[in-house]
Amino acid sequence: MLTILAFAAAAASHAGIPYDPPTTPIDNAVARVELSAGVPHVVTKPHVHLTNRVMIYFQAGTNTIRYPDGRVSAEHFRAGDVQWNDAMGTHTATITAAGPVDIVHVELKSPPAMMPTSKNPALDPSQFKVELDNNQVRVLRLHLGKGEKTPTYNERLERLLVPLTEAQLKTSGSDGAVKAVHYRSGEVQWLTPGTQSDENTGNAPYEAIIVEFKK
């Protein structure tokens, strides 16, 4: 059966986008998840990223990274894009966009050179598109049309669910239990392993990003 770990304090402050003020609703042994809204044309203080990260963007823009040695790297992204970022030394960042950019930062706590011991489940490619797949994570984009339902699948890994759209879902577990859930856009959820199927019971297509954490 699917189990959703509730983060009541985070839900109280961030039940979805906009991610302002920033918050860290999830910080466990697997990952640290930070939600923030990047303000255009503001240069951050010099900082480092000690771990590899998955970044999920809700609006389009460019993030310009500047290093002390003069190197400049521009990262372009669209609304709903997923990007992989390696650990980074000291740098500043400046976002160029039409307005604030809501970002999910997923900092990985697994060793960068880890060798996975669990195999990812095979999923319907017409519903689950693979965005990233490396030794630390597999990132999927789930798309369900109105009334569409996934086949039952066995998820062996802990994972982060990031709804890109508002959703009304009916989730069925292997024990026959059925749960109706409602997600706002950007309302992150931490999911534990289990067997399930998902049905879009809302009036519009549903799209979400799923970050599976390998171990």
Task: Describe the model.
There is one protein chain. The protein is mostly beta strands. The chain has 2 domains: 4-10 and 111-213, Jelly Rolls; 15-108, Jelly Rolls (Sandwich). The protein is 3% helix and 51% strand. The protein has 1 helix and 19 strands. The chain has one helix at residues 8-13, and strands at 4-5, 23-27, 31-38, 47-49, 53-57, 61-66, 72-77, 82-85, 88-96, 101-108, 128-133, 137-144, 153-155, 159-163, 167-173, 178-183, 189-191, 194-200, 206-213. A 6-stranded antiparallel β-sheet has the order 1-17-14-19-12-11, with no helix packed on it. The chain has a 5-stranded antiparallel β-sheet with strand order 2-3-10-5-8. It has a 4-stranded antiparallel β-sheet with strand order 4-9-6-7, with no helix packed on it. A hairpin with a 3-residue loop joins strand 11 (128-133) and strand 12 (137-144). It is globular and about 60 Å long. 26% of the residues are buried.
Describe the structure in brief.
This protein is mainly β. The protein has one helix at 8-13, and strands spanning 4-5, 23-27, 31-38, 47-49, 53-57, 61-66, 72-77, 82-85, 88-96, 101-108, 128-133, 137-144, 153-155, 159-163, 167-173, 178-183, 189-191, 194-200, 206-213.
Key descriptive features of the protein:
215 residues; mainly beta; Jelly Rolls; 2 domains; 6-stranded antiparallel beta sheet; 5-stranded antiparallel beta sheet; 1 helix; 19 strands; disordered N terminus
Topology:
Elements: E1 4-5, H1 8-13, E2 23-27, E3 31-38, E4 47-49, E5 53-57, E6 61-66, E7 72-77, E8 82-85, E9 88-96, E10 101-108, E11 128-133, E12 137-144, E13 153-155, E14 159-163, E15 167-173, E16 178-183, E17 189-191, E18 194-200, E19 206-213
Antiparallel strand pairs: 1-17, 2-3, 3-10, 4-9, 5-8, 5-10, 6-7, 6-9, 11-12, 12-19, 13-18, 14-17, 14-19, 15-16, 15-18
